[in-house]
Amino acid sequence: MDLTTTYLGLKLKNPLIISASPLSEEIDNFRRLEDAGASCIVHYSLFEEQITGEIYEADYYQTFGSESFAESLSYFPKPSQFILGPQEYCEHIRLAKKAVDIPIIASLNGHSLGGWTKYARHLEEAGADALELNIYYLATDPEDTSEKIENNYVEVLKAVKSVVKIPVAVKLSPYFSAMANMAVRLDQAGADGLVLFNRFYQPDIDLENLKITPNVLLSNSPEMRLPMRWIAILFGRIKADMAATSGIHTAADVLKLLMVGAKATMLCSILLRKGIDHLGRIKTEMVEWMKEHEYRSVAQMQGSISQRLCTDPELFERANYMKVLKSYHSGKR
Amino acid sequence: MERQKVTIDGNEAAAYVAYHLNEVIAIYPITPSSVMGELSDEWMSRGTPNIWGTVPVVQEMQSEAGAAGTVHGALTTGALTTTFTSSQGLLLMLPNMYKIAGELTSTVFHVAARSVATHALSIFGDHSDVMAARATGFALLSSCSVQEVMDFALIAQAATLESRVPFMHFLDGFRTSHEVSKIEKLTVEDMKAMIDDELVIAHRLRGLSPDRPVMRGSAQNPDVFFQAREAANVFYINCPGLVQKAMDKFAALTGRQYHLFDYFGDPNAERVIVVMGSAAEACQDTVEKLNQADEKVGLVRVRLYRPFSVKHLVDALPEGVRTIAVLDRTKESGSSGEPLYLDIVNALVEMSSQRKDRRMPTIIGGRYGLSSKEFTPAMIKGIFDEMLKADPKNHFTVGIKDDLTGTSLEYDEDFIIESPFGVRAIFHGLGSDGTVSANKSSIRIIGENTPNYAQGYFVYDSKKAGSVTVSHLRFGPKPIHSSYLIGRANFIGCHFFGFLERYDVLKELEEGGVFLLNSMYEHKQTWDKLPREVQQELITKKAQFYVIDATKVAREAGLGGRINTVMQTAFFAISGVLPREEAITAIKESIKKTYGNKGEEIVKLNYEAVDHTLAHLHRIQFPKEATSQHSRIEAVSSQAPKYVREVIGKMIGRCGDEIPVSRMPADGTFPVGTSKWEKRNIAQEIPVWDPDICIQCGKCVAVCPHAVIRTKVYDPALLKKSPGTFKSVEAKDAELKGLQFTIQVAPEDCTGCAICVDICPVKNKSETRLKAINMKEQLPIKDEEIKNWDFFLDLPESDRGLVKHSTIRGIQSLEPLFEFSGACAGCGETPYIKIMTQLFGDRALIANATGCSSIFGGNLPTTPWTKNKEGRGPAWSNSLFEDNAEFGLGFRLAVDKQSEYARELIKKLASSIGDTLVNELLSAKQLDEADIFEQRKRVELLKKKIARLKTPEARQLQSLADMLVKKSVWIIGGDGWAYDIGFGGLDHVMAAGKDVNILVLDTEVYSNTGGQASKSTPRGAVAKFAAGGKPMPKKDLARIAMIYEYVYVASVALGAKDEHTLKAFLEAEAYPGPSLIIAYSHCIAQGIDMTTAMSDQKNAVLTGYWPLFRYNPALAFEGKNPLILDSKSPKIPLDEFMYSQNRFKILTKTHPPRAKELLKLAQEDVNKRFEIFEQMAAQAPAAAEKKDQ
Fold first, then answer.
1. Which domains does chain A have, with CATH numbers?
2. What is the ipTM metric for this complex?
């Protein structure tokens, strides 16, 4: 069975990629993931705030209260060098590269145009095979127009592309008014891949303390429908490779996403829930299904049920809405 | 050889050479020498080698006595060894110094000379410490300037190795140790050239070794001890010559020629000053000026004070000298003269008998500059003028006004001799706004980018929150000898507008000088906002007035409140010390150097601030007449008592130098309750109470570090005359039914830390961001809140008998007798002290170890210790750092003895007093407030009764009667004291079994001296002297104390469980034996968010890092297990606590693998310790102790 695929120009032994997550915090996990069958690992993210905020924080606490009172003109020894987030991150990438043979994709998470984008170069130098640019932006300012926000995505991508030679994928949120147009614009701006979609973490409320609490919820399988639809729609319309992420929990999920046109599928929540070894099971089930259904390769199925190549292309569009409603009512009866 | 020019301070200059020339360095922190040890530790942790290519070992000790012992041991074993110290630290080293000298052991101690504590402690500079060591047999070599510090550190090392006489190389504390100056840096080759390796090997071979055993340190008898002492004479006779030899060799190497005594001035001088230390620099400036006016004056600098060479001194003096004034920077009460004076008198008397060719001059001696008192050219000219008189004053003082014994010399204060070349700039900064750092950077920029010489000296405040820094910077084409503050400035920067309201910022501005103001007002409005005096001074002095809103520029650039870069750029732009473009390039390079290791982003932000500065800098044209309608604020209110107004008020108004001798207490005793007169107004925001949602829990009152949040419960009828905005609600507690309740904030005393808001448990149900107490801008509500505060103070204190003393809720309305201290905003120590005073303050005696608590409690001008309306309150004193437990035990012994004597006298006078009263007085248990109240009434009755008696016993009893009321003795200090330097005494005092209450304010680091590791510092924490993270775990003081089985021990954390803290204080005080409370005290030195620090203590407990427990031996008497574990086993991993604090987190950024390893070990420490406590608490109690034990 030929499971190989190509994503961002990287030849992968199968379409099972590990998405940016705590799974990649330990170097040991890289080996375990490789052994379990992962074809590529997206390293946990380096955040814009780490690049900027951590520096401020280090400086703030290192100097807070200093040069003020004669007996205590400082409170900490002066280190000759700080190994801040970005340096630690690069070091981690180096170690990860040494640990495994599969490609490692570095992940840079931010939203604004600024100095942080040039850290992409450091990630390349550290040995990353590609870069995933996670533009995580919540448009909360009522003054911000959609045009401005969309332009910002493109500019950030260009800024990063201008400093690296390795391929760059953009991880997107699903909240664009003109999703298809946005994908095309990013494609034209040089994105080598699009990762669909980012899940914005939704805060919760602690009723006892009347406080907002940050809350990370692992994904559920039905969530893969959203990327599935958009990959299906975009397949064949852009040059960039598409990877699916969010809610990929079963071999069936993987297969469906490949069929709508994904070059690769990214998994995380299911492995956090069931353990790294579960990846092997997904892979086995996927192969069994393919065998059972007489598929020879992954390439054979990629895009086969995309909007352009499927029998009912309208089902991916508005018309689908009516069918859903109808099916709901018929279900009730 | 071209040597690098560096701009560094005296401490670094000494440490640089000392580090490179030694193998072992034993250290202990003490201001102002701590930096020498800190730098050595940093260099060691970076692997910097000495000149022989090996990295010296730096070992922190538990005290200077310990450091000296270790130094002695390492020297005895043949290692090149050094130490650094000052003041009391040097005194603790004295016994070993006698030994080291007696054994002719080569070493150099580097001492930043500082006042020895007498009537008061002072961290500032004079020679009282080094003079106390002059009999040890150490050679004493004095440096006058930063360059000399580096040079003499090397010369001393060369000389000690050759002479075998140990050396004490001293520099003036602060004036030289902290002065930043451009100097020529000696190279490793210079050091190698000066140090003879053969002498090093000889030193090593004199060391003890079992391979060639000898014994040293014998005990000798009357038959030979004397002769043996004299046997060393030849080494002392040879020593001066060998020092000169080293100086000559050094001169050949560097071109800088020094002599044992260096003369400067007219070769035919008739009047000569002899002086030692940095004052010689000021004297040189003055002599040069006076020589230009043809005055025949000169100066002898004493370099080598011990061994004293009469010959070299006499040779240095001009032959025609008629009058010599010998200046001592020390005071020896009761002596016939100060030490240097006596040595000079002796030398010249000896000269007169041996050198008939020389005429005996008149010699006068005087004292100057104690505790860094300014010593200026005006004073020096005053001395020269005095020497012209037929009968000049001997044993004079200069620089003060002695209206008591008339010792002081008059002088013309307007004699100012600032160089007309270059820049003389003064900057007034606010606390840690970055002003000092920026100025240090400016000095480096100018020092390193221009041929100019540069000098910086920094004057700091006595407060830890909202303090004022004044920087004095000189730049010029000639070497700068001005070891005094700038008398006339051509540039003054004021970095905080509020200073203009409080004191004369423009005093030193010369005519036509530049005044740069950081103003929060729009530049066109700024003139109108100035007090009238400031306007007038600008007009009179024809000043060039510039304004910038640096705070805005900094904020917009993303730098928060740090305005340093902006003000520095503005200074360079206006002062013209460098061409503007060149200056900006240099500033940017400096920024890169400073912040480069922290990442490019922070560099970029600072660049942005630089680039935006010039656009916001405005020159202000002003009218020819002052227009302002308001004046500067008086330093203290006219309502203050006379002494506060006339003496303490002068200090508050920064005019303490004007206070004459007669107004100062001769024995260091001051009135309490003075901090309330020092209205500092440093908070931009203050807490405002919302009575509608307040649940009256008292938490905000409990945690307030400065006791500015107060509660009272009172009769509603008293509200009739309340100000319109005064807030009041019905008290909620059942026992307070019918009374009104108010929480009031002292608006001018608050530091704005906001810790009260963080701890408030109530949320506004309609607007959850609000609590029952919220921060609001101070200025708009200041006036009305002052009225409310005054009204509140006039309300009667809450009835102590009515409120519960066993709950935080109850004690909130007990009057604190510790208020408005100089502690940091958000301090974690002061709330514990405050609670103690609320509970027991009116009968407390407090022994306070030196450290943060002695400084915020006892540093002039004011004290936070206060008294109640009956005139009772805590009586407080500080003895030393190391002896506080013993000091407090002395209180207890005195109280017990006096109480016992009083009881004996009562029995003797029983017939006159009456049996009922006698019995009641003697049998009163005084277990609670009500009992104590009754006993006080009995004592008053007793006093009345015995007042009629005229017997000696009655008179004795009258003076002792108050001792019949139970006294509460508290021994308070930090972990540096309790775990390290004072542990021996603490242990003994606990063992002694007396009724003392020991409160350890445990910040887990030496906070006051700037964050050095103590034995309380936890594993994995970064601190000075533990730059690579402390490898060993925190000492378990509690368990050590528990071993005695009769010591009450509690571990508390107010922010985690306030009721538990209260319970521990009540139990500790009630326990009739020794009690030890170890109180978790968050601290700025931990690198934490001070606003949330109190509630963050919860994680200290939840992780098991700081278990809460009480070990009460009284329970054992009842047959119960004495240990009660009050917190649960660890719920969350330790890193959640540790990595919210810079002290731990920084290690993950500097030594990541080590941080990981130490975290693992630290977690094991916590788990293991908690398990031990769990086991102890679960054990079946031992058989009930007999009560008579």
1. 5-307 (3.20.20.70)
2. 0.88
